[in-house]
Design brief:
- The complex is a heterodimer of chains A (235) and B (723).
- With 235 residues, chain A is α/β, with parallel strands linked by helices.
- Helix content of chain A is 36%, strand content 27%.
- Chain A has a single domain (13-233), classed as P-loop containing nucleotide triphosphate hydrolases (Rossmann fold), CATH 3.40.50.
- In chain A, the strands form two sheets. In chain A, strands 6-7-8-3-9-10 form a six-stranded mixed β-sheet. Chain A has a four-stranded antiparallel β-sheet with strand order 2-1-4-5.
- The longest helix of chain A has 18 residues, at 188-205.
- Residues 1-9 of chain A have low confidence and may be disordered.
- In chain B, 59% of the residues lie in helices and 11% in strands.
- Chain B has 30 helices and twelve strands.
- In chain B, a hairpin with a 6-residue loop joins strand 6 (397-403) and strand 7 (410-423).
- The chains are: A alpha/beta (235), B alpha+beta (723).
- The A-B interface holds A 58, 62, 65, 67-68, 87-88, 91-92, 94-96, 99-100, 102-106, 108-111, 115, 118-120, 122-125, 168-169, 172, 180, 184-185 and B 17, 20-21, 24-25, 28, 31-32, 35-36, 38-39, 613-614, 617-625, 627, 714-716, 718-719, 721-723.
- The structure holds adenosine-5'-diphosphate (ADP) and magnesium ion.
């Protein structure tokens, strides 16, 4: 279901980048990864960042995900300018506003599917065990792993692991879910179902999704495609 | 690698941050930690076993040390030291109960008014007894072989046993013949002219006693011949043994009451109030016993410790010495005894008829592992009863010669030997076990101070001479009886004489009446002592400290003029041995500590490196640094709890078991260390806590750098590709 359009305009823009530049320093060499980039992501979007390898997709997602800070320019996420925030505040912003889906799934190997998904809720605190488990189980059902709650990542297939990762990203009901090449480690069929699942979750809950990919099959599903070439948005 | 200080400062802030979340995330932290530990079983086992072993060693080491320390304290306090030792204040040297490192005794002056000191000290509630003492070194000599045989001959003459008399006389003739030859060798070494001037011409005397008519007349008038032999020939014996005796002069009855480690081994205690001497059992065995027998004892001790002769070079050399010295053994046997020994050995060893006693003795003494037990028993059954096993026997008079501290004279004081004693647990320690016991009167005389008799004697002489104060020169003139040599050590002018200083020389003549005299308690107490041992009622360490403090205050207030030190300080090297062990233990623990630290640290660093991506992921999805820190620390805590706990439990169990069964002391050193044949360690809960705390400390220090590494992991690390 689409989001109600009653929210104020500033809140509608979950991500805003203005003149953002990102340089990597390799010893004396400065590698420009993003150059003078402006971008706005609105709530409820289901957008893809596309571009060849090395074009700056990961760098861009890292800036939006508050995992890295820009060399210049302004990055605003959920109304907060990330350049101004401490590590603690950035971490809180990630915990409460952003969900992450990784290319390599990145589940904690020693925890079960349920425990992996429950983990961000434990970090947030203040939610009772019953409610936590109810939310986790509901999500597990929605990603089609209702009866895999007690499985460890090692006992799951790649696709199943990514579903667990998606559930973990969504369990805190974040404003924004970021996924860096979520299907790169999956075969195209499984990748397709994962993208369809994400799309479905976007449609049902209105959660904003921003994912990078260089897979045309995946790009097809995006409502909006942001094309990056050499650290700049192609026209 | 060094990070700015601020980073460590922030660590504390992180630890306390999000405290409310601590409890909520604790289960997940614990779960992750436990799962991680299980997942990396090998690493966990490595680190765990080091923590376990470290805790075990720490606990057992400190408990064993504590046991040694306490055993040593009990032994030293209850054998001679008491809890506190007193000596004259302002002494030049510091007081050492067991002497200086070179074996000499420090000169600490004397306590002149002992009764007043004792009265003052007994005012303190915790003081039980004050025992007067005087410790010094004297020298004495055993009779030489000729003298011993002359004594035996005289006894035979007196008893009228003609057969024995003849046998001994015959043997003596043979000894003199051998002796003659050895003397002509000796003459090459000494200033013959001077020797003849001082002792007469030995050749003349020897020539005379070697003539057959001397011996044919012997039977007619044995006493006259004996007199000549004793005066002219006896002193020529060169094999006189000088023995150095460290003695402890004390109120013997009080000493026995006060020190419960003291016990008489053979003979009897010196009768209360009387003069007398008790040999330390160990000294008696080492210095007075027949050397061959003593060596056999030593070998037996080694074998009892589990050694074999084949693996004991000392034993082999003792056996060689025994075999080479059968001659001296044979010389001590009179012809009758030699024949009896020969017959018995021939029977027991199954030798041919033609073998001489000397050959048989050599064969007997050439022992090895197979025959040692049987030969040792045979020696004691056949040979020993016919020997003079100890050159000084109970009931003998012993002339002690010592350097008198006060006047600078050499003093000769005869004392009767009553028996042997030992300090239980210290008897096998050469350092602290070397005291012999002598009565207070003989000690004072040896040390150069007046006894009641000497005081009276001097006063009489003084009256007769009509002088009030006796100078040293006068004293010499007064005391030097005609023909008596005044012995003197050149020490320059005597110092200003303190009260009771005996300025006269002593003759060393044995006076049976004097030896039987019973001194009153007041006579015993009134006279100088060198030091005094204070035994406390409550001997706990705290009480010792408290009483020592009170005693020092009292000393200052009343001007008692004594210095007071604790038993450990008074015991010098012996007491410090515990400190040496303590530092060795600390050193060993430090090494264990460091090795454990390095290994554990490395293992944890590696583990953290392996988990960089996982930590990055947790940080990306919203875990604060404090959470990461808790996660890392939790693993350490779990390991300390599990493995340190196991180590503490194992150590406790081992200590409880050892505390029940005891650890056997296998060598003399351990005997001394354990203050007895077995050490019974006690398990102290404070030590368990300390060992666990140390384990935790090591583990936490080892976690510092891995934790720092983990805290540096950025969430970007999660994005790294590859799985
Ligand atoms: N940590 C880094 N250090 C230096 N250069 C980097 C780093 N990460 C990325 N880059 C460089 O930045 C550019 C953009 O990389 P990236 O954002 O990973 O692109 P993409 O995800 O599209 O492949 C590339 O040229 C890459 O080599
Ligand atoms: Mg990339």
């Amino acid at each position: 279901m689409p989001e109600p359009l009653s929210e104020p305009p500033s809140a509608e823009r979950i991500v805003q980048l203005e003149g953002v530049r990102k340089d990597y320093r390799l010893g004396a060499v400065v590698v420009p990864a993003l150059r003078a980039l402006d971008l706005t992501i609105s709530r409820g979007e289901f957008s893809a960042i596309a571009g060849p390898s090395g074009s700056g997709k990961t760098t861009l997602l890292n800036l939006i995900g508050c995992v890295d800070v820009a060399t210049a320019g302004r990055v605003t996420v959920a109304g907060q300018e990330t350049g101004q925030l401490s590590d603690r505040a950035l971490t809180r912003l990630r915990l409460f506003q952003i969900g992450f889906i990784f290319q390599s799934f990145n589940l904690v190997p020693v925890l079960t599917a349920l425990q992996n998904i429950e983990f961000p809720l434990l970090l947030q605190g203040g939610i009772g065990r019953a409610e936590r488990h109810e939310r986790v189980r509901a999500l597990l059902a929605r990603v089609g792993l209702g009866d895999h709650a007690e499985h460890r990542p090692g006992e799951l297939s790649g696709g199943q692991r990514q579903r667990v990762a998606i559930a973990r990203a969504l369990v805190t009901r974040p404003a924004l879910v970021l996924a860096d090449e979520p299907t790169a480690n999956l075969d195209s069929k499984t990748g397709g179902t994962i993208i369809e699942l994400m799309q479905q979750l976007n449609e049902q809950d209105g959660t904003t999704f921003l994912f990078s990919t260089h897979d045309q099959q995946v790009i097809k599903h995006a409502h909006r495609v942001i094309r990056l070439v050499d650290g700049q948005i192609a026209a | 690698m060094s990070a700015p200080r601020g980073r460590w400062g922030r660590l504390g802030a992180l630890l306390s941050a999000e405290g409310s979340l601590l409890w909520q995330t604790l289960p997940v932290v614990a779960r992750i930690s436990l799962r991680n530990l299980r997942l990396h079983r090998l690493r966990t086992l490595l680190v765990g076993s080091i923590l376990l072993l470290g805790t075990l060693l720490l606990l057992s080491g400190s408990c064993l040390f504590e046991a040694v320390d306490q055993a040593m304290e009990r032994t030293l306090v209850n054998s001679v030291a008491g809890h506190i030792q007193l000596y004259r204040a302002g002494a030049k040297e510091s007081f050492q109960l067991f002497g200086n490192m070179d074996g000499s005794m420090p000169d600490v002056g004397v306590i002149e008014n002992f009764p007043a000191l004792r009265r003052a000290l007994l005012q303190l509630d915790n003081v039980a007894t004050v025992v007067p003492m005087g410790i010094d070194i004297a020298v004495s000599s055993t009779e030489n072989l000729l003298e011993r045989q002359l004594a035996a001959l005289r006894a035979a003459v007196r008893s009228g046993d003609l057969a024995r008399q003849r046998a001994l006389a015959q043997h003596l003739q043979r000894v003199i013949a051998v002796f003659d030859r050895s003397l002509s060798n000796a003459e090459a070494l000494i200033d013959v002219a001077r020797y003849k001037r001082e002792y007469g011409d030995p050749d003349l005397a020897l020539a005379r006693v070697r003539r057959p008519d001397f011996w044919s007349r012997f039977e007619a008038d044995p006493y006259d011949a004996l007199e000549y032999l004793e005066n002219e020939v006896g002193p020529l014996g060169l094999d006189q043994d000088l023995i150095w005796l460290r003695y402890l002069g004390t109120d013997t009855a009080l000493f026995r009451q006060t020190f419960d480690r003291f016990e008489v081994v053979d003979g009897t205690m010196i009768p209360p109030g009387q003069r007398g001497f008790l040999f330390n059992k160990r000294v008696y065995e080492e210095q007075v016993k027949n050397k061959t027998a003593r060596r056999l004892d030593l070998i037996k001790e080694k074998l009892d410790e589990g050694l074999t002769i084949a693996r004991c070079p000392d034993c082999q050399s003792w056996i060689r010495l025994n075999v080479n010295q059968t001659g001296s053994l044979l010389m001590q046997l009179d012809p009758l005894a030699a024949e009896a020994v020969g017959a018995a050995l021939r029977r027991e060893l199954g030798g041919g008829k033609q073998q001489s006693t000397a050959q048989l003795l050599r064969e007997l003494l050439a022992m090895d592992d197979q025959n040692f037990a049987a030969r040792h028993a045979l020696f004691y059954r056949v040979v020993a009863p016919r020997l003079e096993l100890y050159s000084i026997k109970f009931g003998d008079e012993l002339v002690l010669t010592a350097f008198a501290r006060g006047s600078g004279y050499t003093r000769k004081v005869p004392v009767k030997v009553y028996g042997t004693f030992r300090f239980r647990s210290l008897d096998r320690s050469p350092l602290a076990g070397g005291f012999n016991l002598v009565d207070l009167m003989s000690f004072r005389e040896l040390y150069g101070y007046l006894t009641p008799e000497r005081r009276r004697e001097q006063e009489t002489l003084r009256r007769r001479a009509g002088v009030k104060a006796v100078t040293r020169a006068q004293a010499e003139a007064l005391f030097a009886a005609p023909g008596e040599v005044v012995e003197e050590q050149g020490r320059g002018a005597a110092p200003a004489a303190p009260a009771g200083l005996d300025l006269g020389p002593s003759t060393g003549r044995y006076d049976a009446a004097l030896q039987r005299r019973v001194y009153s308690q007041s006579e015993l107490d009134h006279g100088v002592v060198v030091n005094a041992a204070v035994m406390l009622k409550d001997g706990s360490r705290a009480a010792q400290r408290r009483t020592l403090e009170q005693l020092r205050t009292l000393n200052r207030r009343l001007g008692l003029g004594v210095a007071a030190i604790g038993w450990r300080e008074a015991s010098g090297v012996v007491g410090q041995l515990v400190d040496v062990i303590r530092y060795a233990l600390y050193g060993a623990m430090l090494v264990i500590f460091l090795v454990a630290l390095i290994i554990v640290n490395n293992a944890l660093l590696l583990a953290t490196l392996e988990r960089t991506r996982e930590i990055g992921t947790l940080r990306a999805i919203g875990a604060q640094r404090s959470f990461v820190l808790r996660m890392i620390v939790a693993e350490t805590v779990v390991m300390v709890a599990v493995f340190g706990g196991c180590g503490a439990a194992l150590g406790s169990a081992a200590l409880l078991w050892l505390g029940h069964h005891g650890i056997p002391a296998t060598t003399d050193f351990f005997h001394f260390l354990f203050s007895g044949p077995r050490l019974y360690p006690a398990l102290a809960w404070s030590q368990v806590a300390l060992a666990l705390a140390s384990c935790a400390l090591v583990a936490l220090i080892a976690t510092l750098s891995p934790a720092r590494l983990a805290l540096r992991v950025t969430p970007r690390e999660a994005m790294a590709e590859g799985d």
